[in-house]
Amino acid sequence: MLDDFMTRAALAGIGVALAAAPLGCFVVWRRMAYFGDATAHAAILGIALSLALDVSIFAGALLVSLLMAWTVTRLSLRGYAIDTLLGVLAHSTLAVGLVVVSFLSGVRIDLMAYLFGDILAVSRADLAIIWGGAALVIALISWRWVPLLITTLNEELAYASGLNPNREKLILTLALGITVAVAIKVVGVLLIVAMLIIPSAAARSLARTPEVMAVVGGVIGMISAVVGLRAAYIFDTPTGPSIVCIASIFFVIFSIIGSVRNKRF
Predict the structure, then answer these.
(1) Is there a contact between 249 and 219 (Cβ–Cβ < 8 Å)?
(2) Average pLDDT for consecutive 10-residue bins of the chain (265 residues)?
(3) Domain positions in the chain
(4) Which of 3, 98, 129, 142 is deepest in the core (most CB within 10 A)?
(5) Beta carbons of 22 and 138 less than 8 angstroms apart
(6) Whether 218 contacts 17, CB under 8 Å
(7) CATH topology of domain 5-190
(8) First and final CA of the chain: distance in angstroms?
(9) What interhelical angle do 165-187 and 57-76 show, nearest 10?
(10) 40 CB contacts (<8 Å, ≥6 apart)?
């Protein structure tokens, strides 16, 4: 079955959607979109360093993404303005990564594939990495689901419950770094945050509980991946952007349904 590139692509998209669904809920609730964007931009530096050092691109992107997430978390705890900090680090790491790539001689690199994804080129090894990363993220979020919810709801309540909000925030950012690293091959650096936010935001219009929102977001993400992949094949359009477009259509439809339902009741 895995000899078919379309099957591998579909499985890769589903794997990323499963990883992004529960994490995307917290990104929406905590308004961490810019944080996710900064982590994704940092992955370009990881890719450039991987090519320069001739090591695994996934390992390089994962290491730099995790380092970025950890750095931002630690500096924000010391009183730095988070929006300014994210802006500086996001654009600095992206610029440095692109400069490093320009100095690589004898190395052919398709930047468009890393910026917007190249899901059709997913190999069996890539598939193993994507699903391994997705399983790790799902296990991590499931393990800390209740503490993360309490911390997101109210940090004072978290302290009263014996939780450490800073630790929970660090766990969330580490999960975000892993998701960014595994999603690069599918939707690319520039569209990773879209797959985190849009399915979860669409599910928010209909879900009554956090758990339902996570499940519905995952279903929307998986359907978007499969339908977007098929649409890209039929209409000869870029695959990553096509997947995000399908997710955006779901968001518009569910937002309208949610708005009508709220007016009725």
Answers:
(1) no
(2) 81 93 90 82 88 85 85 72 79 88 74 83 90 94 94 90 88 88 86 92 90 94 95 91 95 90 71
(3) 5-190
(4) 129
(5) yes
(6) yes
(7) ABC transporter involved in vitamin B12 uptake, BtuC (1.10.3470)
(8) 48
(9) 150
(10) 65, 180, 189, 190, 192, 193
Cα separation, 40 vs 49, whole angstroms: 15
What size, in residues, is the chain? Answer: 265
Taking the whole predicted model, whether its pTM rises above 0.85 is answered as yes
For 20, the token pair is 């992004």
Computed on alpha carbons and rounded to an integer, the radius of gyration of the chain in Å comes to: 18
Residue with the two structure tokens 């398709």 = 110
Measuring CA to CA, how many Å separate 250 from each of 37, 205, 257? 22, 11, 10
Write down the pLDDT at residue 2. Answer: 63
Q: Which residues of 71-88 are buried (b: 16+ CB within 10 A; e: fewer)?
A: ebbeebeeeeebeebbee
Structure tokens given for 163: 């939780």
